[in-house]
């Protein structure tokens, strides 16, 4: 039998101290390491022999823009699309790293790095990279490995997500699920839990946007009797309730900054102290978090702690919006229609080909949740079991008169409503930042952050 080859990692950095220390760390961890000073050498090494992972810096000359790094990444991806690349970035240059991830990097880490965290990231990235000889992904092969019930779809982007779940569900690695509202993040969190060794214990779901700062500690950590006026008995917090199971932190981007450090401490130490207790308790958790915001951009804007971000995102799953997996729409529509019909005792529902065409061509800003609502409304309004395109158009026309439509927010996500309101304020107050902030009920700083997030900053003026 052929002896197993050590996995080879290519380090691309012009700083020899970084090369030496990374190579040493990797070798001590059982990998084979090779070094390159810059793009030319790196591409040469890739052509010379097999490499399983690249760790690459973003600047190789006096430039500091990171463009050289993005350029090298693009060339590596062109040469070997399946080869995973981890970007090394300087502390505070997260927006550059996000551009890299959007351009195909597997993930990124900052210099200086934490040795144990970096090796965990390297291993997780290698585990997830499909070997060149892997058989084609199919829904059937994935269903044979895991229980994905309730998750409908077979678009390659969804299959990739399911494959990642199959690879990481068994571990304790924290997973961050990113995706627009209504793309199925909660469903994915459920699947991770259901397919983990923790499945017999509960998954505890908490909406971080709904916990006020004053209640954070008592909600999460619990309290003992007498800890404060209303604490008449001991109360278990969410962390204790999720012990042995999974803690699902939904809307993690909404967590207040002051509470972020409290959560970070629990994740770091695996210990927490109920309010009023004299001793700390042990936490036994697997953390899955989700957000419809670009968390790395919140870090860049100073709204989310970078250290907490790195604790949460060891594995990142990006759920595609429905418009990027249109081929799944007929499948989803039939599934949802059958469910709705079942719920209302309507018998079997048939969706005509022109209805499926129409559904497949809508923009669906509210994703699968909006698709469900549209189907439900059309079914109930049409009052029959055979639905054509005309029934959907009629249901939509009725909807134009609905209160949601008058508000101009029907079918829009919260993000889109926010953007729409800012655009209106921009127009109304001709870009005067103080008057806009007043009209929107925001501080000027908060408004600036939102303008930046929506890419609307260029039209504003100070006075
Ligand atoms: N692949 C899928 N197959 C079937 N149903 C789905 C799928 N994805 C999502 N859904 C359904 O769409 C609805 C929205 O999903 P979910 O609540 O998980 O979205 P979300 O991304 O968590 O949304 P939000 O960010 O608004 O909380 C749910 O009713 C869910 O069951």
TrEMBL record:
<dbReference type="InterPro" id="IPR058031">
    <property type="entry name" value="AAA_lid_NorR"/>
</dbReference>
<dbReference type="InterPro" id="IPR025662">
    <property type="entry name" value="Sigma_54_int_dom_ATP-bd_1"/>
</dbReference>
<dbReference type="Pfam" id="PF02954">
    <property type="entry name" value="HTH_8"/>
</dbReference>
<feature type="modified residue" description="4-aspartylphosphate">
    <location>
        <position position="57"/>
    </location>
</feature>
<dbReference type="InterPro" id="IPR011006">
    <property type="entry name" value="CheY-like_superfamily"/>
</dbReference>
<dbReference type="Pfam" id="PF00158">
    <property type="entry name" value="Sigma54_activat"/>
</dbReference>
<dbReference type="Pfam" id="PF00072">
    <property type="entry name" value="Response_reg"/>
</dbReference>
<feature type="domain" description="Response regulatory">
    <location>
        <begin position="8"/>
        <end position="126"/>
    </location>
</feature>
<dbReference type="InterPro" id="IPR003593">
    <property type="entry name" value="AAA+_ATPase"/>
</dbReference>
<dbReference type="InterPro" id="IPR001789">
    <property type="entry name" value="Sig_transdc_resp-reg_receiver"/>
</dbReference>
<keyword id="KW-0804">Transcription</keyword>
<dbReference type="InterPro" id="IPR025943">
    <property type="entry name" value="Sigma_54_int_dom_ATP-bd_2"/>
</dbReference>
<keyword id="KW-0805">Transcription regulation</keyword>
<keyword id="KW-0597">Phosphoprotein</keyword>
<dbReference type="Pfam" id="PF25601">
    <property type="entry name" value="AAA_lid_14"/>
</dbReference>
<dbReference type="InterPro" id="IPR027417">
    <property type="entry name" value="P-loop_NTPase"/>
</dbReference>
<keyword id="KW-0547">Nucleotide-binding</keyword>
<dbReference type="InterPro" id="IPR002197">
    <property type="entry name" value="HTH_Fis"/>
</dbReference>
<feature type="domain" description="Sigma-54 factor interaction">
    <location>
        <begin position="151"/>
        <end position="380"/>
    </location>
</feature>
<protein>
    <submittedName>
        <fullName>Sigma-54-dependent transcriptional regulator</fullName>
    </submittedName>
</protein>
<dbReference type="InterPro" id="IPR009057">
    <property type="entry name" value="Homeodomain-like_sf"/>
</dbReference>
<dbReference type="InterPro" id="IPR002078">
    <property type="entry name" value="Sigma_54_int"/>
</dbReference>
<keyword id="KW-0067">ATP-binding</keyword>
